[in-house]
Amino acid sequence: MSKIDLKKIKVILLDLGGVVFQSSGISNNRINWYIINQLNEKYGHDLNIGNCRLSTFVSEYSYLTNQFLGELEFLAGIFDTIEFNKELIEILNVDHDIIIVSDNYRENIEYISQRYRFSEWSIKQVYSFDYQMVKSNSEFFKRLLDELDFEKEEMLLIDDSPNKIASAAANGIHGILYKGNDEIALEFID
């Protein structure tokens, strides 16, 4: 990939899971990541695009773990085991606007957008359930380009998925594969 001219970049398209939110994979008394990962295989895609409700996921999770968790209790337990990457937000917000682009499911977003005040550090949020497709579908980024007042050359996607970087690239949007804050800082700080 050719070098990105960061002086032309006005907006960062920023992924949430694996970038802004990073899981340690450590379970606690409510959260069993092994079972969550199994259920994500079963329900993940349908949750992301809005064809399944979190209540279905939590109901099966509760049954498998012999617990009786409500959705909010489940989400609180999840985010007690996940770290918020505030440092990355601070690095990126110095000279760029941020638009969140995520495959997270609606109930999760409703919970974390309040807890982590998305509206304070992002100018817009776009989710798979808004478009009824995940970001690995290049139509996601085509539709995003049609809706935004930015040119593709003015945007940069930061994501931890090579498939999603490729999907954005198919629409002319440059991307950086997230591997850690240090690598991002080297790109953004003179």
Explain this structure to me?
The chain has 190 residues and is α/β, with parallel strands linked by helices. It has ten helices and seven strands. It is globular and about 55 Å long. The mean pLDDT is 92.
**Helical stretch tally:** 10
Distance between the termini: 21 Å
Give the number of DSSP strands.
7
Q: Give the fraction of residues assigned to helices.
A: 40-55%
Q: What is the oligomeric state here? A: single chain
Along the chain, the helix and strand elements come as EEHHHEHEHHEHHEHEH
Features:
190 residues, alpha/beta, five-stranded parallel sheet, two-stranded antiparallel sheet, 10 helices, 7 strands, 46% helix, 15% strand, globular
In short:
The protein has 190 residues and is of the alpha/beta class.
Which helices and strands occur, and which strands form pairs?
Elements: E1 11-14, E2 21-23, H1 33-48, H2 54-65, H3 71-79, E3 82-84, H4 86-92, E4 97-102, H5 106-115, H6 118-121, E5 124-127, H7 128-131, H8 138-147, E6 155-159, H9 162-169, E7 174-177, H10 181-188
Parallel strand pairs: 1-4, 1-6, 4-5, 6-7
Antiparallel strand pairs: 2-3
